[in-house]
Structure formats: structure tokens, C-alpha cells
User: Fold this.
Amino acid sequence: MQKLYYSIGEVAQRISEPVSLVRFWSEKFSRFIKPERNAKGNRLYSAEDLEILCQIHYLVKDTGLSLDGAARRLTADRASVEGRVKVLESLKAIRAQLVEVKDSI
Assistant:
């Protein structure tokens, strides 16, 4: 079951990046990412925010786009980027399973 909100630490762990980078991307891509705030003022990210951050991570880290290029790509063709990220996550999960099987043999 999916959580309603994720802390910034959980998001950073999920995309394997430091909290400071998640905070920076949240501010840079504020048009796409709108974290809620709790009573303490901590950022709480929705599942959709997490997906967008995964897409930004893919565009910036995996394809090498600049931040402006990533913003343009998300604006122009977000569905395509979302599909590529889902395929990449599926392949990573399959690889992890195969490594687990290999190690058990």
C-alpha cells in the first residue's frame, strides 16, 4: 500500500540523492512539485511529487540534461518521460531479483 505523504528524507533515500538536492529540485521545479507542510513546517511529498522527482532524477542524472532542459522536457512531453522512468524502475527490480537468485545458487 502506498503512503499518502513522504518525508523529505524518505524521498531522498528513494531517489538516492541528498536531502539538500531534493530541497533544491523542489524549489527549482515548483511548477511541478508542490509539497505540503506539516505543523512544524517540514515538507511532505505526495506520491505524485515523488514520481515527478524520480522523473527529474532520470532526466538530469541518467540522460544528462540540464535543469532547464529537464523542465522543458517535463513541460513538453511528461507522459513519455513517465513511461521511461516506469520501464527503468521495472528493469532495476528485475535485475535485483536476478542478482538475488544468482546469490542463492
Summary: The chain has one domain: 5-104. DSSP finds four helices and three strands in the chain. The mean pLDDT is 91.
